Amino acid sequence: MTDAIQTTAVSARTQRLQARLRGRYAREMRFKWYGRAAIGFALTFLVILLGSIIMQGHTAFYAHSVTLPVYMDPARIDRSYPQGANFEQIVAEQQMRRLGIQDDAQGSKTAAMKALFSSELKFQAAGMIARQPSLLGQTVPVTAPLSDNADLYLKGEISQATPEDQRRISNEQMAWLDRMKASGSVRAHFNSALFTKGDSTQPELAGLLGAVVGSALMLLVTALIAIPVGVGAAVWLEEYSPRNRLTAIIEVNINNLAAVPSIVYGLLGLALFINFLHLPRASPMVGGLVLALMALPTVIIATRSSLKAVPPSIREAALAMGASRTQTVFGHVLPLAMPGVMTGSIIAMAHALGETAPLLLIGMISFVPGVPHAIDEPVGALPSLIYIWENASERAFHERTAAAILVLLAFMIVMNAAAILLRRRFERRW
Amino acid sequence: MKFNVFRAPEGQAGNGSAVAEPSTLTSAPIVGAHASAPLGPIKIAARDVCVFYGDKQALFDVSLDIPDKTVTALIGPSGCGKSTFLRTMNRMNDTIPGCRVTGEIEMDGGDINDRKIDPVLLRAQVGMVFQKPNPFPKTIYENVAYGPKIHGLATSKGELDDIVQKALKRAGLWEEVADRLHSPGTGLSGGQQQRLVIARAIAVEPEVILMDEPCSALDPIATAKIEELIDELRERYCIVIVTHSMAQAARVSQRTAFFHMGKLVETGDTEEIFTNPREKRTLDYITGRFG
User: Are residues A185 and A216 in the same domain?
Assistant: First the structure.
């Protein structure tokens, strides 16, 4: 009798426990799926983002160029001033003859033919004559990029189905390009101009190198200023400063500075570095200084939190051994915090690399052809170049914009990889 | 007053391995001979020491004589101020913001709280071992060599090697780590780490070693080894140990001081404190009625 009562009591209790347990497992399972869904969501958007950029940008990594035999007509080319010759006209006329095309009275077909070649053709040919005047009177092959529209057509981005008056390239030009392609004088190749040249108004000649070098120089200035100053400030605040009202105010304000919109830093840079200190505008020096101001709070906060994470027992151990405070900090605490400091700094640098708004205000939005060599000359930066190209009217700039974004992403991946490598190295030492 | 970290203790050159007399090891845990002997020369004399953390007073007028070449145990319930008192003796309380120490602590006749005394030099003379083993995340060798290096005790690599070897031998760790001096100190077991930390402390030839519950994180076998070591080190150093274990205090110390609520209740020979305490509170504590 008592046994039976006990058994029912026990089984009721067990049932209740089991029901609860089922509920707990269900909660756990639900949470796991929330997590998976969130990650899945993020990955989907990443794939869509990268996919669309790659879809748009991959065509910018190759380009078409034309190689034509050119008769260097001594009657039309001045030996002492080859740059003055109208090479485009000469080449177009010769090519018309080769293809057997009759021009009309206005010369509009020759003009249409000329429009297929990049203006680079003239510089190539003039350069050849300038280097080797004996080429005059001979027929020599000259290679130059096709114009942006011809290139887009050959990449299949301008369709014949579009009404002729709505596209930048006529049916006739399309037919000529097809013939030139069939004859082998037009061929596709890796678009080396993209990586070896500065910005240009002509898409087929525009490159990223100027902006990459500009961004790199700027980042160098930023890193040289923000990391030592930021780490130093964090070490002082965390390890040396007395805990009083003043340091509390400083602390709160550093956290506030991290949240200040970057365009405000741009205004500060404009007022302080350009208008007051008269540093050269649009230079990597000014850009680096502004970005350093912006990166400082991040570096300080990251460094402080990694200093805080160092166990106090290490500090006590060093102090009890008779190490001075500085020996304790620089010999034990900072090295242990180094992986965190590196990660925080690199994140701040990567953030600075992609920052555009402050650069607009210090003049880095202007067209800068060529590649910079010094930190006090005007440069472009990758993010501002992306902005400029995206706003350009030439359609060929659109694929180049996507390509520039890919290069910026690659730049950041290289930086993050460097951060991981450095962190590994520092961690292994301990 | 001699705060000279370069001073080598007498007899150090003679018996480098510093093996204690066998009789000390095998004799009864409570060392009768020492307990009944008159108090030796006083190494540290504390007079009316008060410690404040901000507005809160943690120690009230503690006056205590700590003899040289003796193990003095500080016992008492948690929060009674024994660790605080221990930390006044190498001025580790200086590192705590808002902590204030009044009263006098004399070591060899000089006030250690004197403005002219550099705590960095003081700590080279008063080593400290903590509750949790805290070796630096470096190699065993670097751990032990750290003190001599920062204080400039060795002029050559060979000399440094000798110091490291001697310290590890004295800490009873040499046999276990001789073949892996350059592997990380954090890879050792808890008990080995604690002996490594002791080796690190004695590598700078201190005169006093403070130990803050050195065995509380260790298993009984490791604890026994540390206790044996403390007994050996007594030959050469003035040792002050904070412990929660009454049995440990009875086993390793010759003098005992009982703290309660921030006050020093009673002090005397360990044997006397444990067999015939004067104060009722001491009796209650050592018989386990509170604490």
Answer: no
The C-alpha atoms of residue B197 and residue B199 are separated, in whole angstroms, by 5
Identify from B120, B131, B151 which residue to disrupt to test chain A contact, counting A C-beta atoms within 10 A and taking the largest count.
B120
Same domain assignment for residues A230 and A133? no
ipTM surpasses cut 0.85: no
Domain boundary among A140, A160, A189: A189
Q: What share of chain B is helix, strand, coil (3-state, %, to 5)?
A: 40, 25, 40
Q: What is the pLDDT of residues B254-282, one digit of tens each?
A: 999 999 999 999 999 999 999 988 888 89
Q: Is the pLDDT of residue A376 over 60?
A: yes
Identity of the residue in B122, B130, B204 whose CB atom sits nearest the CB atom of A313: B130
Between CA A221 and CA A207 the distance in angstroms is 23
Contact criterion met (CB below 8 Å) for B224 and B156: no
CATH of residue A241's domain is 1.10.3720.10
Q: Closest Cα to residue A181, out of A220, A200, A154?
A: A154
Single-letter amino acid code for the residue at A172: E
- Judgement on whether residues A117 and A246 belong to the same structural domain of the protein: no
Quote the percentage of chain A above a pLDDT of 90: 45
Number of domains in chain A: 2
Give the domain extent around A369: 209-429
Interface test with A, best of B136, B149, B182, B198 (most A CBs within 10 A): B136
Q: Do A322 and B121 touch (CB under 8 A)?
A: yes
Residues A108 and A236 in one domain: no
Global confidence as pTM:
0.80
A90 and A182 co-located in one domain: yes
Q: Is A326 on the interface with B (CB under 8 A)?
A: no
CA distance B238 to A118: 90
Among the partner residues B95, B137, B200, nearest to A319 by beta-carbon distance: B95
> In chain A, whose CA is at the least distance from the CA of B185?
A430
**Residues A380, A312 share a domain:** yes
In a domain? residue B291: no
Distance from the A313 Cα atom to the nearest Cα atom in chain B, whole angstroms: 6
